């Protein structure tokens, strides 16, 4: 991530076409919000996508929690994504041997490759998982596909730290054609202004565990504020219950968008 550079600049210069598209969306819609739409029916999923579409850059799904899933669920979601110009991120967290994740990504009942622009994977199983997912992208017909490496987690006692997080960055550096960045709580590779900056490297940081009003939940989730996450180097803020669980999700989405965008602008000036 290059936190001192504008989304507009990154939209022009990023080597990956999907990342360019992502930054262009952020710049055009003036939002760095990814809503985590953890809803459990097709009707709720599509209605929140339709309502929040104008205020978000990315729509994050857990498609395996939809109780009435059919291919129509994701066909319709793709239409809403085109209408409101956002990307779809399936938070599948692939974590298995290469041969298995290729089947989980490309096939099965969910056919995630067909409709999700962005997926994520853990490197617990080693570098082969990223190789396998990259090959699925290379052998497929969709060009706008990208991978995020799950480099850290926000849950209490997370073991995704230290050497694991370091290995995440090293593996990402070897797979820059398809790995566009990380799910992490902070900047992981050097800022472009620092001496350690790697020329041409521009990983995108998606940060989960964001709330304006809460510090955590009863099951170990830990939150930080939009301003704190942006200060630590986030590029996109993933917000779930903070947006969809209140009485007015649209008003909440606007509040998170404003907070995230204001923090982004002050970082640019800083
Ligand atoms: P919420 O904002 O309601 O706490 O939801 C957070 C979302 O981000 C969930 O979909 C969860 O699966 C995901 N997530 C997380 O909370 N922490 C992580 O470290 C990684 C995640 O993907």
Automatic annotation (TrEMBL):
Pfam families: OMPdecase
Uppermost EC category: lyase
Keyword Lyase: yes
This protein's UniProt keywords: Decarboxylase, Lyase, Pyrimidine biosynthesis
Catalytic activity: orotidine 5'-phosphate + H(+) = UMP + CO2
UniProt superkingdom: Eukaryota
InterPro entries: Aldolase_TIM, OMPdecase, OMPdecase_AS, OMPdeCOase_dom, RibuloseP-bd_barrel
EC number in record: 4.1.1.23
Protein name: Orotidine 5'-phosphate decarboxylase
Lineage of the species this protein comes from: Eukaryota, Fungi, Dikarya, Ascomycota, Pezizomycotina
